[in-house]
Specification:
The structure holds two protein chains of two kinds. By secondary structure, chain A is of the alpha+beta class. In chain A, the strands form six sheets. In chain A, strands 4-3-12-7-8 form a five-stranded mixed β-sheet. In chain A, strands 5, 6, 9, 10 and 11 form a five-stranded antiparallel β-sheet that branches. Chain B is 36% helix and 5% strand. Chain B is globular. Classes of the chains: A alpha+beta, B mainly alpha. At the A-B interface, β3, β4, α8, β7 and α9 of A face α1, β1, α2, α7 and β4 of B. β16 of chain A pairs antiparallel with β6 of chain B.
């Protein structure tokens, strides 16, 4: 670990954490080997949420003669008795992780029931989103539905309209698959210009889970669906908005679309559709109807509100694209990312997420010079179809300003576009399906800003 | 499966190539036939070809009454309000009604897109009003009220005249005059199947350039400094260990540490758990929030203005009102008297 006095340490304490006098006192007392004040500073920092970078650095500096007090002064947890089993029947994250929360974007919506919260991508590892941090999108508020009273109906172009209870559905052979879910409007605030500060808000309408359920095809088959005339399926929710979307039959017949009740080994969370939701891999989240109560087989699409008034993509000529569904290949660097501050010069592992609604990610390239030169990143296994893929690339930061970017390519050969390339075709007013390359500017002081480049 | 061999065969043909689906199996005893009444209760969707549209009718005039009672509080008397949701009405012209394309959609500088500028199918309006409106009491409108409020909405947009009566027989007339009826396209590569025609190649073609790529790498857009704190203190939104921290974007210490005399303290001081359940149950929170104005005033504002007046508030909750807190009226609420009294007591008697 580097010390505060070593060259290259760029970051000072936040001004409201320790004033100049406090810093001087820490420094002086650290030299003398007194550690009480430093411990106090740590406790204060733990109580608040601000980060004591200088204090941390000073504490390490205090190592001076004998060493690091975090090593030399055996802490409470090393000298005492810990807590018993089942202190909490359903365990929660460490209290030190309180900063990692899903959050709304102020001003984005005017009600809290038809609204969005964003997953904290900047703080997540691997590819799975903890269920409690999964992004939320509700159209008329969320419910915690009694699963014993929930029913799933199939009607329309079927031989026998059928009703299934949760008992019925959970009795059938289940499949479990990892898939990403991304709102069609993810990154939508940035079509015209930079609008939000961090990866949480630029890309956080994105999550990835292991979903467990029954392929919808098996249930349609059971009801005797007419697959010749029945080329579309309407999915409908049981909540107040009774959300409806037209689902592509081709994804149903391929076996990909699931009627899911499981998420990451437990039941779906209420905010994510408990007890039943549709899983439509590769397709925008609005089609993954929550609180799923009904599927209707039909010979025409439905032009529902969320495929006729919203979730339609405005093109420069004033035409709207309707039934736009696939989330095209996209990626974002989460470390370093907007609103963060690098600790120091030297080694970093640039890391982020890549995904494609058309299949697997074939590769990710990383640039640290604003897109002039690129080099391939490592893909972390597993690399799964229509699922998040974690990538990383080694990087030595020399302390100079630079712009970091990632660019994903999927197995169809589709290359994630730049803003210039995307806007040349689709303009800037679409709202939906913005999959442009994200740029983060690393400043000399280590602060990272959301920027767009030409 | 054996009961429906032709579908089993279709299934095998359909999924055989992909090989990703479960095999056709006999799931005897799983699920049951739906009754006619069950299907009727849930099968409420209306398609663009009007399949599913029930018989009924409603005039523009009747629609205005329904609108002012049940819709205007969120959408404005003329469907123009943007206070709660996007405006429904505005931006369309008689020329658009004739052409079926809304000209303003091609205007880069046009400030907003209203529902009537976008919607291409009148069935969409009917279906959504029927299934999801009003916001805090979905599915409470009669069929005739849905026709009437749809007629009024269309009238506000100059699509049908004041004397128009919308019914299952006149829906096609309204459809033929919808301003953006020709404004939707499925000619894109974002639908996974071939249901809308042959597959298309993606519209944006980027190249995987690796060396000396033709970019200037100049920053063209960034957040202004004053906006850095718009999402709160970013230092509190990042983990406290790792290769980075969040930038401290808190306003200067004085402002941050000043005690906030307003709502949160008041709210926290109340024993509001029971009341919170009631306001949720009765959909009050669709329009009211603890500490800020939503559609209506905050709990805190109401409590301050009407401290000690529980009887008055209980009556107002049930009867609704207008003019006390601004232009947006509160419709009468179908809430049990005991619950209205409990909420009123919580609002009026909170310590502050």
């Amino acid at each position: 670990m580097t010390t505060a006095s070593s060259p290259g340490r760029l970051v000072k304490a936040p001004e409201n954490f320790l004033d100049a006098q406090g810093v001087a006192q820490v420094r002086a007392e650290a030299r003398q080997g007194r550690r009480d004040f430093i411990r106090g500073a740590f406790a204060a920092a733990a109580a608040g949420a601000a980060l004591p970078l200088a204090a941390q650095a000073q504490a390490t500096a205090g190592a001076g003669a004998a060493g690091d007090p975090a090593i030399l002064d055996l802490p409470e947890h090393t000298r005492g008795l810990g807590q018993p089993v089942v202190t909490d029947g359903y365990g929660k994250p460490s209290r030190h992780e309180a900063n990692v929360q899903r959050r709304p974007s102020p001003g984005l919506t005017q009600t809290a029931q038809a609204s969005v919260s964003f997953a904290p991508l900047q703080s997540l590892f691997g590819i799975v989103t903890p269920s409690g941090l999964h992004f939320e999108r509700h159209h008329q508020g969320w419910w915690d539905i009694d699963p014993t009273k929930h029913r799933f109906m199939i009607n329309g172009l079927v031989k026998t309209p059928m009703v299934f209870t949760m008992d019925d559905l959970m009795r059938l052979p289940a499949v479990s698959r990892f898939h990403f879910i991304e709102c069609g409007a993810n990154t939508g605030m940035e079509w015209g210009n930079v609008a939000v500060p961090t990866a949480q808000y630029t890309h956080g309408m994105l999550s990835c889970s292991e979903f467990t359920g029954v392929p919808l095809i098996a249930l349609l088959e059971r009801a005797g669906a007419d697959f010749k005339r029945g080329r579309f399926v309407l999915a409908e929710g049981a909540d107040g908005s009774s959300m409806t979307r037209t689902i592509p039959m081709s994804l149903i017949t391929s076996g990909e679309v699931l009627v899911a009740y499981g998420q990451n080994g437990e039941m779906l969370r209420p905010e994510n559709g408990y007890p039943l939701r549709l899983v439509v891999p590769g397709v925008q989240g609005v089609s993954w109807v929550k609180y799923l109560r009904r599927c209707e087989v039909g010979d025409q699409p439905w032009a529902t509100k969320d495929e006729s008034v919203h979730y339609v993509d405005l093109m420069p000529d004033g035409m709207h694209r309707q039934y736009s569904s696939i989330q095209e290949c996209k990626s974002v660097i989460t470390t370093p990312s907007g609103g963060q501050r690098l600790l120091d010069r030297g080694f970093y592992s640039i890391t982020g997420l890549a995904w494609s609604g058309r299949g697997k990610v074939r590769g990710v390239d990383v640039s640290v010079d604003g897109g002039r030169n690129w080099r391939p990143a490592r893909l972390q296994t597993p690399v799964l179809a229509k699922c998040l893929t974690r990538f990383s690339a080694d990087w030595q930061w020399d302390g100079k300003p630079c712009i970091v970017q990632s660019r994903a390519v999927d197995e169809t050969g589709y290359v994630q576009p730049s803003y210039a390339q995307l806007r040349a075709v689709r303009g800037t007013r679409s709202i939906y399906h913005n999959n442009a390359i994200q740029s983060w500017l690393v400043r000399e002081n280590g602060e990272v800003a959301n920027v767009q480049v030409a | 499966m054996s009961r429906w061999p032709e579908f089993a065969l279709a299934f095998v043909l359909a999924v055989g190539a992909a090989g990703a689906a479960a095999q056709a199996r006999d799931y005897a005893g799983v699920g049951r036939a739906a009754t006619r009444a069950e299907v009727a209760a849930w099968d409420i969707d209306v398609r663009p070809d009007f399949q599913g549209l029930p018989a009924g009718s409603g005039s523009v005039q009747r629609g205005q009454e329904v609108w002012e009672a049940k819709c205007a509080s969120c959408h404005g008397v003329f469907g123009e309000s943007n206070q709660v949701f996007h405006p429904l009405v505005g931006g369309t012209t008689a020329k658009d009604v004739a052409s079926g394309r809304v000209a303003n959609l091609a205007e880069r500088g046009y400030p907003a897109r209203t529902t009537l500028m976008k919607v291409a199918t009148v069935s969409t309006l009917w279906d959504y009003i029927n299934r999801a409106m009003p916001w805090n009491a979905p599915k409470s409108l009669t069929v005739d009220e849905v026709y009437a409020s749809t007629a009024y909405l269309l009238n506000l947009g100059g699509i049908v005249d004041d004397k128009f009566v919308l019914s299952e027989r006149t829906m096609a007339e309204a459809q033929a005059r919808l301003p953006n009826r020709n404004g939707m396209s499925t000619a894109h590569a974002l639908w996974p199947g071939t249901e809308f025609g042959a597959r298309r190649a993606p519209d944006v073609r980027a190249v995987r350039c690796l060396r000396d790529c033709p970019v200037s790498a100049n920053v063209t857009s960034k957040l202004p400094d004053f906006a850095l704190n718009a999402h709160g203190n970013l230092a509190e939104q990042n983990r406290k260990v790792g290769p980075q921290r969040g930038i401290d974007t808190a306003p200067p210490a004085v402002a941050a540490s000043a005690p906030n005399p307003a709502a949160p303290t008041v709210t926290a001081a109340r024993d509001g758990a029971a009341a919170a359940t009631l306001v949720q149950k009765n959909n009050c929170s669709a329009c009211h929030a603890p500490d800020r104005k939503l559609v209506g005033p905050s709990w805190s504002e109401i409590g301050q203005r009407h401290a000690g007046r529980a009887d008055y508030l209980a009556e107002k909750i049930r009867s609704g009102g207008s003019g006390v807190w601004g232009a947006i009226a509160m419709p009468p609420q179908a809430i049990a008297e005991s619950e209205a009294r409990a909420i009123a007591a919580w609002l009026a008697d909170a310590p502050r």
